[in-house]
Design goal:
Blueprint: E1 12-13, H1 15-19, E2 29-33, E3 39-42, H2 44-50, H3 54-57, H4 71-83, E4 107-115, E5 121-129, H5 131-136, H6 138-175, H7 181-210, E6 217-219, H8 221-233, E7 241-244, E8 254-256, H9 258-275, E9 283-291, H10 292-298, E10 306-314, H11 333-338, H12 340-351, E11 355-360, E12 366-373, H13 395-398, E13 402-407, H14 411-423, E14 426-431, H15 434-444, E15 450-454, H16 462-472, E16 478-482, H17 489-495, E17 500-503, H18 508-525, H19 527-530
Parallel strand pairs: 1-4, 7-9, 13-14, 13-15, 15-16, 16-17
Antiparallel strand pairs: 2-3, 2-5, 4-5, 6-8, 9-10, 10-12, 11-12
Helix pairs in contact: 6-7, 6-14, 7-12, 8-9, 9-12, 15-16
Length: 531
């Protein structure tokens, strides 16, 4: 009998070599997976690693044992191992697992390919649990703890975002009420404000934990600020925010990450509003540009030829300044400990190779100034703009919107979304887990126009639901939603062939807009007419 380690086995094995492994004696986890992705055989070490009984694992989809955020990559890896004859395509790639009981896993794994006596290609996974080693080594223990906190924060953010979506849904219902309109309006505005602040906190926390690199695109700075200010005005009590734009051509192609910089701009405006909350006094935003030689006099590390400049100003009222300027060149570790929002702003500007200055004056005025380099290298081309509007713009009035299957394990959120869509003429079938969703799909497949599913579900995941539906009805659009704030999740979902992605929390108007767009596109392609 052979005692394997992840690197001791060749990438291609014979059936006799697999049978000759010391399945019960080795400390390494062994898992044999069929071409269909289901577990065929495993040993005790593997079962302990993933927190299941050996008998329960046989026949279970391998995807059920892997993190949802890696589901698409893991499915692609399995397909490569089964279909690619050249081991160089997949050999050496790591395979990820989760423990059913919530224990953090630090592991090292390798894959091998085997063709059995009946010609089926199978996959052997050899994995070593490094958790004990990690606990014995202080540095690895720290890494393990950080990874645990990351997983915990992702889970908490998902639950919190589900709760926020429920609040948004009930807010919409309050707005539709017929009694005590004034009180309903006050409650609605208060809840919406809490949602916006809580959402910002979640984003700030996850940004500081992950610190993703910006994906910069050449962006018209004026249009970017106009769009951002439309959103932010509602968060500062519809306070006037004047926008004064420089018309120099250089500012029409500023390399920036619109999502990250948008979060920083929004946080700065909220801070200026809190610094002097008198809504009668408007805030000002203006843009200009300057030569790098002049910027270098203020910031020694400024090395670009020219810089775009954004100024966010609160004229304020007479008062004593309570805070000195904070240049980004010297990020204050002490202030970072106590001010998560400020630290997020500083980190975002820093990763754009830019600079930040905050000044408050005796007269009560406060100003944030941001310098962004022009002519910096752009990693990707701008995304294609999808035109707004839908061929079904008038169909809501006719009440023939279509039939939807909606899946979410948050029953309150599910009921709210379904009620809203029904009020707009849709027939909605609901399910709270993946298995029920598949039963409803099989029963109503011929009538369905759209499936909307959360990514994280008990038992069968939303990704598994999407995959199963796509195999049976490839033309049926599936919209995926999630409360996980993974930086690359939306792009991965879009690459998978799903119809789209919605980040929780979202308002019901946004959900309705996405549904109309998808069904409109489907109607034009002819699929809806066929159903």
């Amino acid at each position: 009998m052979t005692t394997p380690s992840p690197d001791s086995l060749p990438p291609v094995l014979t059936e006799n070599e697999v049978k000759g492994l010391a399945w019960d004696q080795t400390a390494a986890g062994l898992c044999l997976v069929g071409s269909d992705g289901d577990v065929r055989q495993c040993n005790r070490a593997f079962a302990d690693l993933v927190g299941h009984a050996e008998s329960d694992l046989v026949g279970m989809p391998l995807l059920r044992l892997q993190p949802s955020e890696h589901a698409m990559a893991m499915q692609a890896q399995h397909r490569e191992i089964i279909e690619a004859d050249d081991p160089a395509v997949w050999a050496g790639k790591e395979t990820y697992f989760i423990n059913n009981r919530g224990r953090p896993i630090a592991s090292y794994s390798r894959n091998a390919r085997m063709v059995n006596s009946v010609g089926e290609v199978q996959r052997l996974i050899t994995v070593v649990d490094l958790s004990d080693i990690a606990r014995a080594n202080r540095r690895l223990e720290m890494i393990n703890r950080i990874e645990t906190h990351a997983a915990l924060s992702s889970t908490v953010s998902n639950d919190l975002n589900n709760l926020l979506s429920i609040i948004l849904g009930y807010t919409a219902l309050l707005r539709d009420g017929s009694s005590d309109q004034r009180r309903q309006q006050v409650v609605a505005e208060g809840v919406e404000g809490a949602v916006q602040r809580a959402t910002s906190l979640v984003k700030q926390s996850l940004y500081m934990m992950r610190r993703p690199e910006p994906v910069r695109q050449k962006t018209d700075l004026g249009k970017f600020l106009e769009n951002k200010l439309q959103v932010v005005r509602a968060e500062v009590g519809d306070r006037p925010v004047e926008l004064e734009l420089s018309m120099v051509p250089e500012l029409k192609a500023v390399p920036l990450d619109t999502m990250q910089l948008g979060e920083a701009i929004g946080e700065m405006i909220r801070r200026l509003h809190q610094f002097e909350p008198d809504t009668a006094r408007g805030l000002r935003t203006r843009t200009r540009w300057d030569a790098g030689s002049l910027v270098r006099q203020k910031f020694s590390k400024a090395d670009a030829r020219t810089y775009a400049i954004i100024e966010l100003i609160n004229p304020g009222r007479p008062r004593v300044s309570s805070r000195p300027p904070i240049p980004t060149e010297k990020i204050s570790e002490e202030s970072s400990k106590h001010d998560l929002g400020l630290t997020m702003i500083e980190r975002i500007i820093e990763t754009h190779q830019g600079f930040l200055e905050y000044v408050s004056e005796a007269g009560g005025a406060a100003t944030y100034t941001v310098w962004l380099p022009l002519g910096a290298e752009v990693e990707v081309e701008p995304d294609e703009v999808v035109p707004a509007g839908s061929p079904l713009a008038d169909s809501a009035q006719r009440g023939d919107q279509g039939t939807l299957l909606m899946v979410d394990d948050e029953e309150g959120l599910l009921a709210t979304m379904a009620s809203s869509l029904r009020n707009h003429g849709y027939k909605v079938i609901t399910a709270t887990d993946g298995e029920t969703a598949m039963l409803e799909f099989r029963e109503h497949a011929e009538k369905l126009d759209l499936v909307i599913t959360d990514l994280v579900l008990p038992g069968m995941s939303g990704w598994e639901v999407f995959t199963a539906i796509r195999e049976t009805s490839p033309k049926l659009p599936v919209l995926i939603m999630s409360g996980h704030l993974e930086p690359k999740l939306e792009a991965a979902v879009n690459r998978s062939g799903a119809a789209g992605f919605v980040q929780k929390p979202f308002g019901l108007n946004l959900l309705l807009k996405r549904v109309r767009q998808l069904l409109g596109t489907r109607s034009v392609s002819g699929s809806a007419a066929e159903i």
